[in-house]
Amino acid sequence: MNSTSATRRWASAIALASGAALVLSACSAAGPTATSAQLTDTGAAIANVTVALPGSLSNLYPGTEAGILNYYIASISQEGLVSVDANGKIQPGLAKSWKQPDPLTYVYTLRSDAKFQDGNPVTAADVVFSIEQAEDATVSPGVSFSLAGVASATATGEHEVTVKLTAPDAAFITTLSTAGALFVTEKSFWEANKGKVGTSAALIMGTGPYKVTSFSPDSSVTLERVNTWWGTLPKTKTITVKFIPDENTRFLAAKKGEIDVAFNVPLAETRQWEALKNMRVEYANDLSYVGLNFDTRIAPFDDPKVREAIAYSVDKAATVKSLLRGHGEVATAMMTPESLSKAYSTTEAHAKLAAIPQYTFDLKKAKAAIAASTHPSGFTAEFVYPATGPQLGTAAQALAANLAKIGITLNVKEVPIEQWLATIGDGKHGVGYMWYFSTTGDPAEVPTYLLGAGNISGYSNAKVTSLLTQASATQDPAARVALLIKAETQQAKDVINVPLWWGQSATAFSSTLGIKKVSAFAFLSSWPTTLYRGK
Amino acid sequence: MTVTIPARPPWIAPLVRMILLRVAGMVAILLIISMLVFGLLYLAPGDLVKNLIGNRPASPEVIAAIRAQYHLDDPLSLQYWRWLTRALIGDFGQSIRMQAPVIDVIASRTGVTLALCALAFALAVVVAVPLGVLSAVRPDGWLDRSVTAVSLVGLSAPSFAIGLLLLYAFAYYLPIFPVYGGGVGPIDTLYHLVLPSIALALGLGAILMRLTRTTVLRELDADYILFARARGMRESRVNRLALRNAAIPITTSAGLVLTYLIGGTILVETIFALPGLGTLLDSSVLYKDIGVVQALTLMVALLIAVITLVVDLSYLLLDPRVRAKELGR
Amino acid sequence: MTNLSLLGGRAAAAGRRIPGSLVVSFVLIALCLVAIALTPFVSAGATAQNILDGLLPPGSPGHILGTDELGRDILLLTIAGTGSALVGPACIALGSMLIGILFGSLGAYHRGPLDFVIGRATDLLLALPVMLLAIVVAGIFGSGYWITVLLLVFLFSPSDVRIVRAGVLEQAPRPYVEAAQMLSLSRWRIMFRHILPNVLPLIITNLLLNIAIALVTLSSLSFLGLGVAPGAADWGRQISDGRSIMLDNPAAVIVPAILIIAVACSINLIGDWLGKVISQRSDR
Fold it and tell me: Where are the transmembrane segments (chain C) (predicted)?
């Protein structure tokens, strides 16, 4: 997923900066970093909230472009059948209730008071049409994969939609939310603007509390509160989203007081933002996973001993502490602890995931492993990382320095995110990063992608495949997690993926703007309704 | 019927022939560039399908459907031919990244970039050329010294550093200009473009100023000036004579500088978050959005070709010696 | 420096005394050359990591300019980066100027179809988007320092061709050329013995100007990830890597940034002075 646009590459270059000025700003005393908890809700109306994004959107419809920023913006004006709240719990959306008569069938009852932003009521036909568009890989390449298991979606009543699956899928419930793949739109609007939906010419039609009033790629999106929404009207009247690809420019705009919310502040620059008196920075685990991924079809990575040697050479703890400045956590599995929230508390989740076999940094063991491998004298390999993840770059250099000690030469190379995407599973790179942002927070999302059928590692282990299939069919959260942990244990023994860290994202807020809760899920459904004017 | 044909200067016919030849060359260049860019983008690393899907699982059927949708499995020559035959009738296709017609995408960005370039170029020429002439006329005077020093730094500091310096200065100490984004309406747009165009103009102005100074200095040192002075020609006339001869290299470099501008906009547009053509080209190349890249590069190439033609024509108008040589045979 | 004694005339009054800024420039470039000579001795220390101690501010014991996130010494890294800051740009400027002299003088002196073809070829090179070329070249041949240098030689050459052509074109109608032609001297002889020396000031000024521009461009490309590999000793790379640690170790960005600007300024100053000296000598 493109977490930021291509222009970030230039941005990082440009931010090189007039050093002296930056130092001046940095030397001012660090302001207090208040959290929302310390703000009291004044109940006052908010005329406008300016949101600054670190990159541009190309299209407003996440089916066309499914970057994490697209999700943040789409969830302001769009809704799904269900929604995900800040705690990761499923809540009603356009469907006021739903039931599951059998493992393959979901029946949703729509709200009768839901309206599109043009005033037309939401019909079952609109919902079915929206699902069909999301399923179509040519119309919605960014999301269609998650609807691959849908056999049919039919309007079974004036306010009723029935979705049938081809196989049981315990993760399906989230799929029909704006955190998953469904952004309900009006059939007549879509057909009138065929092929232009989500562009600046046609904009987009949704059911959310705000409607998009203008969109200019690389510049801005403006949204205006509507009175057609079924819920309680939010306090904020208009939302202006500005795209500011250069981090220094964004920081200066914040310093001038022109920004109320800044998403995805780079971790390396958070100290600078924390020093601003008019802003505060909040951190939340962002459901992202970073790990090493091996392609078992490519020599010498077809040798498990080689993979083991590399796994022992990563100093994860030092990486998180020194290179991420503690804004992250050493990953013990591909699943994030948050994704286990339906079954376990955070502490329990950590304990469960830590029980999976680990490769703790140990150069002696690494040396032993490489000596026992088919390449005892080492080898040379290329290792690419996306320019949008500078922290991945420093971590890669640290890894390369360690590998040099056991005779492996790792040529670290920085490429634009587009080129990095193309190297995933390209049959040329035997070792690479996996950098994945989950939006649904479902525990099976990452394991299925990285270990399931047709995975990028060319890894086929009948046991793992069967465990994943079982997990998909199991409804009970704890039982599912148990199956997934078994699958992770198996892959850890085979060293296909080496989890490195679970990421955090930093969001900056104006010090007078409160938000009820910042969490991994907070910005994936109608989040402006949780903003308030604080004191 | 009788038409009185006015007497034409003898160099008109060769001039027309030369222009026609150049235009034919221009068309050939555009064709070659369109082929080169198409081929280069085809070879460039990256995968359109991956860009559309993102870092997500994709079944072979989904990949096949997308490849078929954008004809990615056709041979390169067929893909190019399809593009060419459509482009020739003015159909530049859809932007895959934006899911909008290429023409619309480009049209919505052209205004900002054009205004930015025009403003920066005007600023550079209006300030740099007179300063260059003045410093050359009185070398080592206080004006020459200070202008040379400023131009030295302008030349040696990367343009993004200047842009950021301006940003910091105007965000911290003199918050009178907006630091990012485009404006609404012509006046507001101009207001928003002040800082970006200064950032863009500084480096250009420095180059132009130095070239002007060097050229005028050299002309003033030439023998004919010595003769002119010896014959008691007034200093102002001497200067005018030198300037006239210095005009050719100055025009050439001004033209060249104008073409540099087009490349320089990318950085400035990114720093100041301006929705222009530079950022569009950058992201389209990375995305392999071939329709936009083709239309944009051809537009830029055409522009550059026209600029160089105009520069070369101005040689003819400014220098009778060149005119005689160029069109005399 | 013996040229100085040859100076005379109005413009030479300034050249009689070497200005302080020029002295500083020469000293800086000399220091850079010393740094390049030292590179083999510091490169091992420059790339040695110490991730646990991590980031140290300037003035830390053993690290005058502090260290970066990976614990590498900024001073050693900066010294080791001098080579890539100067050698590449010099090659770019020389290479592109050689192309410029060859094709520029050929085109300007011979005119006709050859000139037409050369002119259109430079148009073609000028019209190609630099970004696209840089990305494609990095993709196909792999990104690397010398590949980028080679690319820049080609990208710099069209403007050199045009500048030399303009210079020659302007000399061609002058009486001394006609005189030489009447003496039936060969075209090459006229070009290299008579015309080019008169274009030399233009060439020298541009050559030095190009070194400075190449230095800035090359370091820009470096921190765009299109030049040297991450972690290599290179000023541009240092700036891009260091900007995120601005707060903890400002020296990591400021030192290489100031060096780039100062070295570029020095080269320009020396270029100016050299151009002046040569033009005065050739006037004699």
Answer: 20-42, 74-104, 124-156, 195-218, 251-274
